[in-house]
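User: Okay, second chain of the day. Same drill as before: sequence in, C-alpha cells out.
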Amino acid sequence: MPSRPHLPRPHRHDVLIGLGGLLGGVMMWVLGLHNNPSYYGTPRWLGLVALFVVSAAELVRRSRPLIGLGVGTAALAVDVLSGGLAATMLMYSDLIYAAVMHSGPVAARRIPRICWLLSGLATVVPLAIYNDPLALLAGAFVAVLTVTPAWTGSVVRNHREEAQAARLEAERVALLAELDRREAVASERSRMARELHDMVANHLSAIAIHSSAALSLKDPVATDEALGVIRENSVRGLTEMRRLIGLLRDPGDTSEPVATSTLDALDTLLEQARTNARPGGQDIVLCDERPDGAAPLPAPVELAAYRIVQESLTNALKHAAPGRVDVTLAHRADGPLEVSVISPYGDREGPRAPGSGTGLIGMRERVSLLGGTLDAGPVSGPGGTVWQVRATLPLDDESAQSMSTQPVP
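Assistant: Same drill. C-alpha cells below.
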C-alpha cells in the first residue's frame, strides 16, 4: 500500500506561538473581551472554535504555509462573525507573515498584492455602502491586519535571499581561488620538475656513462679520463643544484643576478656534450642557419630551444649509436624558430644510463606553453634509421608573454 506523506514535526517556536495564542484567546473569550458584536446571530462559542483552528494552523506555518493561511482565513471569517478575538487576529497576521517567508517565490510575490487589493476593497466598499468617512477605518484596519505582516515578510525574505546569494558568491569565489591555487601549485611543480631535470639530468647521465666505462675498462689512462669527466660533471651538477635550491629557498632575493640559458651558450653546451661522450661515440655538429644581424629572440623561446637541445644531447649520449649527431637551428624571416637534433638510431641493447622518460614530457610541456609543435621518434633516412627531435617555436608576442610570466632560472 502507498505510504502516507509524512508531515515534519512542527518547529519549537511554532508550537510556542500556537500555545501562547490559544491560551491568550481562551482568557479573552472567558472574560468576554470581544472585538465586535456577533453578526447574523452567530453564537459566540464559534469564536472559540476558530481560535483552536488558527492555533492549529500555526503548527504548519513553516512546513505548509499556504495551507495554514487558507485554513486561518476561513477561521478568521468565523471569528469575525462570532464577535472576534484579538488573539485570533494576531495569529492570522503571523500566518500571513509566515506564508510570505516560507512559501515559494510566486506565492511570496502574490500575497502582498492580494493584501493590498483586499485593503482597497475594504476601504471603497464600506464607504460606498454607508457613505460615512468613518468607514475608512475598516480599510485601515484590514491594511494593518494583512498588508503590514505581508510587507514585513517581503522585506525580511529579500534580505535573507540577498544574504544567501552573498554567501553562495563568497563560496564560489573561495572555490575558484582554491582551484586557481591548486592549478598554480601544479604548474609551479611541473616547471620545477622540468628545470631540475634539464639542469641536472645531463650531468648525472654523463656520470653514469663514464662510471660504467671506468668500471669496465682496465686501461688506467682511460679510467683516469673517465674519472675526470665524472668529477667535472659532479661539480657542475652540484653547482647548478645549489643555485636552483637557492632560488627555491629565497625567490625574492635579487642581490645576485640569475643567469638565463640562451642560444649564445650552445657552443659551451655542445663542447660539454663532446667531453661527456665516450671515445668513439657521438660526433656532435652544430648547424646554425639563423641570419646574421637578426633581431634577438624572445627569452622564453631561447630558453626552450636551449633546453630542447640540452635534453636531446643527453638522450643521444644515453641511447644513440656511435655516429654523427646534427644540431640545427633555423629561423626564417617572420617565421618560427625551428630546432632539430638528429642522432643515429642503430640496433641498441638498451640505454647506457638509466632514464625515466620525463625528458620528452618536459620538452613537450615547454613547446606547448609557447604554442609550438614537437615531433620526436625514429625516422628513415638515406643512411638508415635515425632518431629525430624537431621542434617549431613561434615567436609571436602572445606566446612569449604567456611563458615569460613564469619565473625561469
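The mean pLDDT is 80.

User: Thanks, on to the next one.
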